[in-house]
Write a structure and sequence with these properties.
The structure is a single chain. This protein is of the alpha/beta class. The protein has a single domain, classed as Metallo-beta-lactamase, Chain A (4-Layer Sandwich). About 30% of the residues lie in helices and about 25% in strands. The chain contains 10 helices and 15 strands. The strands form 2 sheets. Strands 6-5-4-3-2-1-14-15 form an 8-stranded mixed β-sheet. Helix 9 packs across helix 10. The protein is globular, with a radius of gyration of 21 Å. The relative contact order is 0.13. The protein binds zinc ion. The site of zinc ion has 4 residues, from loops.
Amino acid sequence: MKARSLLYFLLLLPVAAVQAQPEIRVTFLGTNGPMPEPGRVGTSTLVEAGGQLLLFDAGLNVTQQLVETGVNLPRVDRVFLTHFHSDHVAGLPGLWSTTWLRRRSTPLYLHGPVGVDAIARGIHAFFAKDIPVRINGPEALPPGGQEIEVVETAQQGVVYQQEGVVVTAFEVDHGADVGTAYGYRIDYGGMSVVLSGDTTYSENLVAHSMGVDLLVHEVMGVTDAMLEAGLYRSGVLEVHATPEQAGQVFAETQPRLAAFTHIILARRPGFETMTPAQLLQRTASHYEGEVLYPQALDEVIIRPDAIMVPGANLQ
Ligand SMILES: [Zn+2]
C-alpha cells in the first residue's frame, strides 16, 4: 500500500508542477550606468519565464553576476541588446566565451538593432587565436558553441516567441547620435514586464507599457546646481530620463510595480551628488506609487495574484 501511495505521488508530481502558478522572475544583475563605482554593477537584467532564460543587455560584469545567481551558465544563450553603447555590450565577449567553456554546444543567439552583426564578427575576431585551441586542444569544446546566431531587428514588433513567452521590441528615444534604440516588453501567462533600455521620456514607451506588471525605467540624477553651472550643455539629459520624467512615465502607465535601473547619479568635482533618497523624492513629485530602487542581484517575482520583492530595498 505504501509503495502504491509513493507511485501515485510520483505520478502526480509532474502534474502539480505543470499546474503551478506561472511566474516571471526578473533579476537585476546590475543597475549602474557606464561609470564603474565601488559596490555597483553595470546594467544587465535576467528574465526567467516558462523555463526560459532571457538576458537583456550585457554590462561589464554580467558573467560573474550570472554565476552569483546560481544559474547554469550555458543555459544563458539568448541576449537582447537595447543599443550598442559600451556599457550595454562590454560583458558580451566574456559571456560568449565562458558559456562555451562550460560546454554550451549550440549558438549564442544575439538580438539587437541593425548592426548587431558587427558585434558578433568582433567577438570572433577578438578570440580568433583562442577558438581553434579550444576546439582542437584537450578541452575539445563542441564547435557549435562558438557560433553566434544574429537576429537583427529592423523595425519594432515581436522579436521572439516560444512556448508562450513573447518578446516585443519597441523604439525608444536615446538621441539621434545613437540612432535606433529599443526597449523590450516580455509577456508570459497574462503577465508583462517592460524594460526601457536607455531613453529620455518616450511616448512610444508609454504606449507599450500601459498597465504592465513591472515597468523598469532608466534614470539619471543631475542636481540643479550642476545644471545651473552649465555642466550638461552637451544634452545628456536629452537622451536619458530625469527622475521627474520617469515619474511621469510611471504615472501615465500605472504599472503594478515601478522600478529603476541604469541609475546614474551624476558626479562632478565640487558639486554634491544627488542621493538615492533625493532621486526618489523627485520621482514622487510626479508619481504616488511605490518605486523600487534595486541593488545588484535584487529580484522581482511576478505572479498573477502577487508581486514579490524578496529582500529588496523598498524605499
Ligand atoms: Zn546608452
